[in-house]
Each structure stands twice: as C-alpha cells, then as structure tokens.
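Friendly challenge for the regulars: who can give me the structure tokens for this chain first? No prize, just bragging rights.
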Amino acid sequence: MKKLTLLLLCIISIEIAKAQQKAITGTGEEVLLYDDGTWKYQNENVLKETAISTNSKAFTKDYNASFLLKSKKLNVGFWLNPKLWSFKKATDNAEAEYELQLKTGGLYGMVISEKIQIPLERLKSIAIENAKTAAPDLRIVKEEYRMVNGLKVLLLQLNGTMKGIKFSYYGYYYSNKKGTVQFITYTSQNLLEGYKKECDVLLNGFVELK
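First reply, four minutes later:
Bragging rights claimed.
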C-alpha cells in the first residue's frame, strides 16, 4: 500500500509519465505508444468544450463531519470526519496546502489553494492541462456544476494512466474574489466506484468562511 501511495502522490506532483511515449507517423499524426505494444492517436484525447450541466440537487455538509480544516491562504474550510480521515500539511506536493487519506483504504485527497481568481470554466482547462502532463491519455468521465453549501462548484472526474496505473481524480473546483481552490480526491480507477460515497461526503464539507 505504501508503494501505491507514493506512486499516486507522484501523479499529483505532475511528474512526466514514462509509461507512454509520443511518436509521429509517416503522415504526421501524433500517436501515444504504450509499454504493452498498443498505441492510439493523440487526437483521440482532445477534450472538447461542451456545455456543462448543473445538478439540481443541493449538496450539504454531512452530520458527522465535525472537524473544520481551515485554509491558511483563503477564506474557505473543509468539514471532515476525523474518525475516517487523517490529514497533514502537504509535503509530497509543493502545490498543495493539505494532504488527506482515508484511514481504512486506498483513497486520498488534497487541497490546492492560491490567491488568484480564475473563472470555473478556465479552472477546468488548467486542471486538465496539468494532469495531462503526467497522463497524456487523460479524459473527462464526468463534469457538472453543483451547489454545495450554497456555493457553485465544478465537479470533475478525470481518468488517466500513469506508469501503468489507471487512476481517477474526483473533486471540486471553486473560485471567488479571494482566490481559487481545488479540493480533490484520487485513487485507482478500479477502486473509485466503491469509494464514491466517501468522496462525496468529504467533498461536500467544503464551505466558504465569512
């Protein structure tokens, strides 16, 4: 489990993927080459801009989320259940403010905050561009706007492959006049569906502090 944890943290640190190499065909098409001998066109990974729907449900903090983890950079906080989640100041990712881990399994989280206001639509592009540095085959699995404790956030689920491991990012993106927040959970793709409830409960603890 430690090795998997470290590898996933390398993903979040945006290291360059060596499991996938780029090549140019005789006709000038870019392709991705995989260790198992397979390949695919780079253009298949182009993420088209589409209208993002809004979930009609109102998402709120869980009753058992009793501890408020406060950002030291922005006026936001993250209610969590300390019996389920451990957290610490980020050490493995210089861009992150906090790192989190589910105590009972291979689900992880992080908070990235910065004092720059960025429209949600642009945040999506930035998140994808950064993640594709580590995983060129990255694709959007789910995207929607949500109202979380009265705040409009963007939910993104992104799937990709890093050094042979298929992983998923699942998180909220938010921006206000004071700055921008990425509140993200991540794990391997085969585990995400089983962890969706834990992901949503954690993410729905996101609040703006007055």
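Residues 1-19 have pLDDT under 50 and may be disordered. The chain has one domain: 2-208. Your move, everyone else.
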